[in-house]
Predict the structure.
Amino acid sequence: MSINGKRRIASEAMDDSELEPKSAGAKPSTGFLSNDDLYLFNEGSHFRLYEKLGAHPAEVNGVQGVHFAVWAPDAERVCATGDFNGWKRDQHDLRPVGRSGIWEGFVADAKIGQCYKYHITSRYHRYRVEKADPYAFFCEVPPRTASVVWNLDYPWNDAEWLKQRRESSGHGAPVSIYEVHLGSWMRAPEENNRSLSYREIAPKLAEYVKSMGFTHVELMPVMEHPFSGSWGYQTTGYFAPTSRFGTPQDFMYLVDTLHQHGIGVILDWVPSHFPTDEHGLGYFDGTHLYEHFYQERGFHPDWKSYIFNYGRHEVRSFLISSALFWFEKYHADGLRVDAVASMLYNDYSRKDGEWMPNKYGGRENLEAVGFLRKLNEEVYKNYPDVQMYAEESTAWPMVSKPTYVGGLGFGFKWDMGWMHDTLTYMTKEPVHRKYHHSELTFRMLYAFTENFVLPLSHDEVVHGKAALLSKMPGDDWQKFANLRLLFGYMYGQPGKKLLFMGGEFGQWREWYHDESLDWHLTQYDRHKGIQKWVKDLNVLYRNEPALHEQDTVHEGFEWIDCNDMDSSVLSLLRKSRERQELILCVFNFTPVPRFRYRIGVPKGGFWKEVVNSDASEYGGGGIGNLGGLYTSSIPWHGRPHSIEINAPPLAATFFKHQL
């Protein structure tokens, strides 16, 4: 179905005569918006606004059409304009609903698939503009900007997944996330390098992620956005998946397919800021409606975008409705909330004199704190089997602790400190690493203050930072060995895992959003070795309770030796909860093999070597421990037993105690 409507430029000049209605306009609807709806909306506690505002096919007095409703409290006049009236601005006036600030009306014969906008005349300065619908379910393919009348009917087939997903994403579950940008994961080079549609990518992505052993995918923002180069982080459609790859039902099919393959779906969601494009939320009715009035609080200096006014009741209703919408209508299993730090601090990325303190004189954005707490309370109240993830880069306390103990209420927080410290360390030449040993060990001073996800995300492989493989020092052999070591170290650490696409097979070049990943590299042995290593780590992580059951509590972790900086070797234990299974992880961060390296262990008997990143099947040199080692009664590292291992160069080795 074509959605290419004929439209006028949003703020095109017109005669005053055009402001006078030439017809009866849109018919008022009765009963669509109740008094309770209006009260809860203005109170900031209506969290299903997508059922009431926007464009909804309806029948009034036996006539089929569409009910339109939009919030524009400082408008003098609002008209629905679109394919149904030849984009005239004077035929279908909406009517204000009491003092709610909402305008509504019923347009007979308007249909699903037709494009529309709201033409708004402000009571201030006679500002006139055409706006896309903030609650639209579907939009035109960018760079076109109209909204599209649509419904969200879809026959879901993921009931089995939904029944068990609570067990798949909790603090004690093995959560291994594959971060994906849909427009560049895989393209069709034989067709002018076009992106795959939601339905085309669905089986390919599901089968690949399942074969690699990941438990979840995290999709970089799929919400509609005007500029592809923003990667989706400049959102205009908070209730609409981007039309670049298909319809809402096509996106549902993608989520449904992933669920049927046993894979959870986490969506990036951006309530921290929104773009200044004229058709979007900014200056919506001639006033700062969605954004904060003051420049010091309403405009983001880094991203040149508007910042939501979290103190406004209706804005809170809008954003929390958006969050719940993706769980209800698209069966999302989690939201990763972007740029939380920028929301929490009034002085974020601002110099002295460029920000406004809160009412107590502090730098904290109290309204944003209140919003985030309410957001998480509503999500977990309505969907207790999903997760909320915070991308928060500061030391704000208790981000992932419940609101009833003073936390922000998220389920997990990205450990940005671990990511930066670890990558800084790994880029050092091995001969210098002993002088930076604390960059590996510092994390354990705070590792259990939050429920952490360890991310190796898209932000680390763009803007001249180099791909993970290219960051590594040394010749090609050492680069691949270092990358395997990095992944092994991540899977040995307590915390859930996240890896951005392309890293799992060692892409050489930085990620670029307009090109496919370099899948041809997987035909080469070293790249296949990296890929198999990540797969085997995922299998081990999922199968061994010691590596995931106590990811978020100190009882699941114990240093064996974190002080051998001269050898640049770390050794640690991971422990399961009930059966007290033990996994010993040893990491050699130099290209020098450590033969007969003695390590103290708490239990005697046989320690089986379960994975070794230096194995030849991964592209390594094949130095190992012949399947495992028996302990001797020599006390070491304060433990009653010890083993002498071969610690391969630039390698991670995992041993499991045999009960």
